[in-house]
Predict the structure.
Amino acid sequence: MDDLVPLRYHDGCLELLEQTLLPAAEVWLPCHDPEAVAAAIRRLAVRGAPALGVAGAWGVVLGIAAARPGERHQTARQAAELLRATRPTAVNLGWALDEVLLAVAAASDDEAVAVATATAGRIEAADREANRTLAGHGAPLLPPGGRVLTHCNAGALATAGIGTALGVIAAAHRHAPLSNVWVDETRPLLQGARLTAWELGRLGVPYQIVTDSMVGALMARGLVDAVVVGSDRIAANGDVANKIGTYTVAVLAARHQVPFYVAAPTSTVDPATATGRDIAIEERDQREVLELAGHRIAPAGAHALNWAFDVTPAELVTAIITEAGIATAPYGDSLRNHVAAGRSRGVRS
Ligand code: MRU
């Protein structure tokens, strides 16, 4: 099977696989400037924390490549600020933008395009490698024949590689087949029902889509052996921000003694954010909740609250799987070691 990628950069153009249309249509969206990339990020044409970082990095490259000589540093900063403002929770976005800015700041105006291009390429390659490695670390945690639940989409579509949570699931299934993956549909934008289901189908992993509200009933009947999810930002103390509904799954998992694993590269760990309370939670347009596939379902005048993410406290997390291995509590110490290992592997600076 061909490798599934959410984006590809070539000859001054960033093409994004338009995820709002999946799985019905596979359309590649060409972006020629940072504004186009920012607009695509805002409406989730490209999404998933690591993929946002890679797309943001290439977005800055597009900006500098079109800048007039002598204006490349300033253009890089402006493009980065535009892209940074698109989605606040996924730390990989701001992190990747800072990586490019740092590299460009140390380069001359003449070198800026080449240096930014090399940095974006390095970020993309490092994420691909981190996915592969963390999948190998995480796979043995899932029992042969197991029934594993995942929330949202943390697959190839959300990264530059095979995915984080789905990378672990696919690697475990290759080693010793799982009997089923429970795919939370993931209200309101259905990243589970549309994207995770599509990816698992391509991978040949058996799955069933469930409504988010079924998780408790599934666990109460003993039908879930483990949970694996991705993350948008992991605070220094191990609190985990991920798609709205993840916290509910974690509470239920604790109630039913089901292990709750988080899979993420070390670029998702944010040592500068002390705890989950310090994580900015993106609030999105209420129409995403009030409408279904573009059709209004709520009564006229109804309002909705649409937080895109929630925070799962570290005490509910059984382990965090990164490219550096398996981190367990106390997370302050173990994550610090993982971040240091990520630096020496070139996944982060
Ligand atoms: O709003 P989205 O679709 O960008 O949210 C994505 C998630 O919550 C993923 O679980 C997370 O970014 C990890 S992706 C490897």
Notes: The mean pLDDT is 97.
